[in-house]
Fold this protein.
Amino acid sequence: MNPEAQAAFERMVAKMPLEKRVQYLSQIEQIEKDFKEDGVQFDHTDSAHAIVISNEEATAVDRDTVGGVPYVCDKWPVPKCKICGQAMALNLQFDIRECFNVPFAEGSHFLAFSCFAHHGDLDNNLFKDNTKQLPLNFWDARKNHEFYLLPPGSSYRRGAEDTFFRPRLLYFYEFTEFVYTLRSLENALAAESPERKVGGTPSWWNTNYSELLCPCGGRMKLLFQIRDDWDFHIHGEREFVALPFLNTKHEITIVLGCERQCDPRAMIAVHDFMDEYDDEEV
């Protein structure tokens, strides 16, 4: 576990009553033993934050939302789809906290947009699996989705309210995930965690992009990871609608960003899948 994650884990454990703390640490030890018995190599624990979409409606002052009012700036307004020219929908936005233990400046503001009129692939098609460094200005190749990681203090302007998603507040809670390797899948790295998380350890089931470099030379580090569909409220719909994140169906979507934050668009979404994995064999 990296020092920041270790410190966060220790803070979380220290807040527990003594009896609960002993029980919790005992459970971790038992999970490690269970992993070994099931042919899984326990690697480490890590601290991360689960992303929760609440039923509470977001207002114009909220910055952690699905839909709602995007917080952007004059240089980086709400993007338009390069296929149809329409303003993209705001999938989500949130502020970066110190407690997230991610290598991005506290106070930065992340936004993910996509065009729900046009399906498209994620950013894996921008480079080959064995690529060590992304091409210059790789973000310009995106057509139907966009990311911004705006520096602290720069997300000062309210854009037009999103008209696709019904605005909902996002919440985050800290948890400990158990990271393990699967030798049957050539040492695939995986983490037992909620379906949506910020920080922690990315799950690399097939292709490991942990050594991927930004054109500036900085490493592309994990911001958040999503598994399966999100359940969203759409304007005009009474019930929840299951939609894929960024309007692209993939089992696992991992969003990485340049640790140097050389450009607000120096983010990339890569997909992975688990269909080679059989729970009964592990």
Summary: The CA atoms of residues 56 and 208 lie 37 Å apart. Confidence is low (pLDDT under 50) at residues 275-282. Helices lie at 3-14, 18-37. The radius of gyration is 19 Å.
